[in-house]
Amino acid sequence: MILSKPPSLIPPLLSSRLRPISHPPIRTLHLAPPFLLDTYTPRHQLLSPLTFAKKRSAAHAHLRHCNLCPRLCGVNRYEKTGICLIGAQTVKVNTIAPHFGEEPFIQGHNGSGSVFFSGCNLRCVFCQNHSIAHQRSGFDLSPEELGRWFVKLQDVGGVHNINLVTPEHVVPQAALAIMHAAENGLRVPVVYNTSAFDSLASLELLDGLVDIYLPDFKVWSTSASRRLLKAEDYASAARESVRAMQAQVGDLCFTPDGLAKRGVLVRHLVMPGKEEEGRRIVEWLASEEGVGRDVFVNIMEQYRPDAHVGKERRKAGTRDDGSGVVEPGGEEGAEMEVRYGDINRPVRLEEVRSVRKAAEAAGLWRFVDPPRHEGFAL
């Protein structure tokens, strides 16, 4: 007898066991599901025209009675300026360009589309961007012009996001620019890169327009805030702001390409001799009163003396004749001193490690570290 096909040498029972098994799609990142997004649509793409109209109206109202930061100047910025020295019709921008100085999962391969605003609502004596934030250098742009730059960064620069750097004092103009850009082709997420000295009113205006919040929580104590930032209520405002940001966008999440798309990343710049400030901040972040142990944290070590730190000034109460009288303009031969001498040095590695250990002891575990493999640090 001739068989049409050879008999199977595998028993039927075993054959059924060897059938191909279907697997779920392989993810390229090994992240817990809550922090991994298969796809992502920027929040500004999900708002209705009615919501845009309401936000535009609110933006102009804020500018007529400014309550954008905890200083609550209350000025009509169409007529005069407050402490930030920026009006209502335009913003002053120092630099617009793809930027490669951010965290790896923010800048990616093509850069973060950074917009560095001039002016600031703080007066940090150690400001690392003093020439930009306090010398008001740059060029003026209307919100519509700024929005067109956002789209150009995306289409021409190929950036992964739009990164608003030091925008606390120009939130209404920034919101108007985001909405204008969204209506004209903007498809990438928006990053709000802030000192955390924000008001709840400004964060409410940004709700739905910002995808990633990057607050820099600077100091904890009132004395350090008053002396180094010239803002007595900084820490309480920062705590309130970070909680509001977390409520809007949650913990930092990524798409499978390794890029952050939504959430909060809290930064802290460790300063010389100020480890206790950092320890208090990370302990609060991890606590029930803070934002929880899953918050992503960047403990930064790149502090350098800048701005007013290390500058010489005549020591108060000294004069060549010994009278102790200080006259305007100074006097040759008067005794000199270095301003803010306690932070007039680079931060030491052991100081950074001290804050990091405190963060780990508090239960924080998501840190910006150098990658131990090829690719982004996650």
Task: Describe, in plain words, how this protein is organized in 3D.
Mean pLDDT is 88; it is low at 1-10, 13-18, 23-27 and 320-326. Strand 5, helix 7 and strand 6 (212-215) form a beta-alpha-beta unit. The termini are far apart. With 378 residues, the chain is of the alpha/beta class. It has helices at 12-17, 49-64, 104-107, 130-133, 143-155, 171-182, 200-206, 222-229, 234-249, 275-286, 349-362, and strands at residues 91-99, 112-117, 139-141, 162-165, 190-194, 212-215, 253-254, 260-269, 296-300, 312-314, 336-338, 366-367.
Give a brief rundown of this model.
With 378 residues, this protein is of the alpha/beta class. The chain has helices at 12-17, 49-64, 104-107, 130-133, 143-155, 171-182, 200-206, 222-229, 234-249, 275-286, 349-362; strands at 91-99, 112-117, 139-141, 162-165, 190-194, 212-215, 253-254, 260-269, 296-300, 312-314, 336-338, 366-367.
